[in-house]
Design brief:
Helix content: 25-40%
CATH superfamily: Winged helix-like DNA-binding domain superfamily/Winged helix DNA-binding domain
CATH topology: Arc Repressor Mutant, subunit A
Order of helices and strands: EEHHHHEEEEEEEHH
Radius of gyration: 18 Å
Strand order of the largest sheet: 6-5-9
Number of strands: 9
Structural class: alpha+beta
Number of helices: 6
CATH class: Mainly Alpha
């Protein structure tokens, strides 16, 4: 069985079922790893480990936060996920699709996939160094916040003092899109 994942930048890519992906990396396909990988394959909002835990505990009441963190770390180590460190807070996780960059909205805290032509995306070597991963981060204000009510009155203070000190909720909108 193949899962079809749709990215925000309009490409569709076929991936094997989570169990087959885990096996291809030499990993035991435990129920916890399968569900965590399935969950991340269907999300585009780059969740934190706590968000993954909260989403799965309803169906898996014995799931622990330690299990989620351990599974995420293993999936990152094996190259199935990317841990984004675009913020100084908790890592966010992204199922590895095609090469893409990320945009962080300083206003609402969303992390969005963006399509940017990158001359380094397919580089295998730079000055004799083997390139294994490339991260491109952009920071600013997303289009939803730019057009949303309330942005105009505090756009300068939010950018100046950051999200932590503004007292605002971090997510005014969601960029979660689930693939098929």
């Amino acid at each position: 069985m193949m899962n079809l994942i749709y990215s925000k930048i309009g490409m569709s890519i076929k991936y094997g079922a989570p169990k087959a992906l885990l096996a291809s990396k030499g990993l035991n396909a435990s129920l916890q790893r399968i569900r965590i990988l399935e969950h991340l394959m269907g999300r585009m909002d780059h969740p934190t480990a706590n968000m993954v835990y909260a989403a799965l505990t309803g169906e898996m009441p014995t799931l622990s936060k330690a299990t989620v963190y351990n599974a995420l770390n293993v999936l990152v180590d094996k190259g199935l996920l990317t841990a984004l460190t675009i913020t100084s807070e908790e890592a966010r996780y992204d199922f590895k699709r095609e090469h893409h960059h990320h945009f962080f909205c300083k206003h609402c805290g969303s992390i969005l996939d963006v399509k940017v032509k990158c001359t380094y995306a397919d580089v295998a070597e730079i000055e004799g160094h083997r390139v294994e991963d490339i991260h491109g981060y952009f920071k600013g204000t997303c289009k939803e916040c730019l057009t949303g009510a309330g942005y105009q009155e505090d756009r300068h203070s939010a950018a100046r003092v950051g999200l932590r000190t503004t007292g605002r909720k971090k997510a005014r909108h969601t960029n979660s899109k689930r693939g098929g």
